[in-house]
């Protein structure tokens, strides 16, 4: 069975020959081992995609190549710091909550209709995804669309500043989310009928390790209804939907299901997301991830990894694409990834 066949069967409600391997490769040793050569800045694209095609069954629609490390000063004065596999930007600073709200409203003050700029962004995104699918061979690549992301708002200023805005002017936040929703629905409607999309990956972090970032009542008021509208539009196109949020989502798991999600990622066990509990509560939900990457994969033994892989598969009765609880970063030793892959390939339901 090919990787794409394996994933298709699972997301359509069946059980393939084995559990698929779903992950993100951000690990030099793993990429070089499965890519077949030393990773350099000159060959990075070829080696990364070859490694993905060699070992993964499915991956998110965000293929990363190693950055050239350094610090860049952006036009607005903020620093953009890049490390080999990650980057971050200093948060924006505003003189007052009113100034922050004014900037958010300036964004939504742009055209709510579909514009030439929107169309250019759509075509660029689809072209990039087509190219990635071709380069990754048989890997099932989840599609990327415009999203509704509450974390996209608070990440640019930091959670403290965002909390002040939410208290002083919640309407500005809701208006921004509504604008995102309109643009997402327009994007979905304009994807060509012959585009080879089968499933899309939506992400918005709404939880810490032990609890939600926001009160459930707030999420039910401003976020989940809009997420549900986007998911419903995807379903009308025949696309399955995977949703990603780190942290403990148990308090709003019912809400996510009512929004229509078909798959959930990354299932952080150390945050209280037990695969067995989630599966027993929603047996048709496909789980993505489940193998702890904060402790087990970096510091555990290959035998411990093998045992955990088998446990996750059995606890979910095979309704899982096994993978790390976010990405295979450079702290994960190659031996543990090999143990994970070998266990997946040899285990049968």
Query: Can you summarize the main beta sheet?
Result: 5 strands, parallel
| Whole-number mean pLDDT | 96
Distance between the termini: 15 Å
Question: How much helical structure, as a percent, in the residues?
Answer: 40-55%
Oligomeric state of the chains present here = single chain
Order of helices and strands: HHHEEEEHHEHHHEHEHEHEHHEH
Q: Can you tell me about this structure?
A:
The protein has 349 residues and is of the alpha/beta class. It has a domain at 94-135 and 142-197 and 210-233. The protein contains 14 helices and 10 strands. It has a 5-stranded parallel sheet. It has a 3-stranded antiparallel sheet with strand order 2-3-4, with no helix packed on it. The radius of gyration is 20 Å and the shape is globular. The chain starts with a helix and ends with a helix. The mean pLDDT is 96.
Labels describing this entry:
single chain; 349 residues; alpha/beta; five-stranded parallel sheet; three-stranded antiparallel sheet
Question: How are the elements arranged and paired?
Answer:
Layout: H1 3-11, H2 28-35, H3 44-55, E1 58-59, E2 70-73, E3 79-83, E4 86-89, H4 97-108, H5 116-135, E5 140-141, H6 150-154, H7 159-168, H8 170-190, E6 199-203, H9 216-236, E7 240-244, H10 253-259, E8 263-265, H11 275-281, E9 286-291, H12 296-299, H13 302-315, E10 320-324, H14 334-346
Parallel strand pairs: 1-5, 6-7, 7-8, 8-9, 9-10
Antiparallel strand pairs: 2-3, 3-4
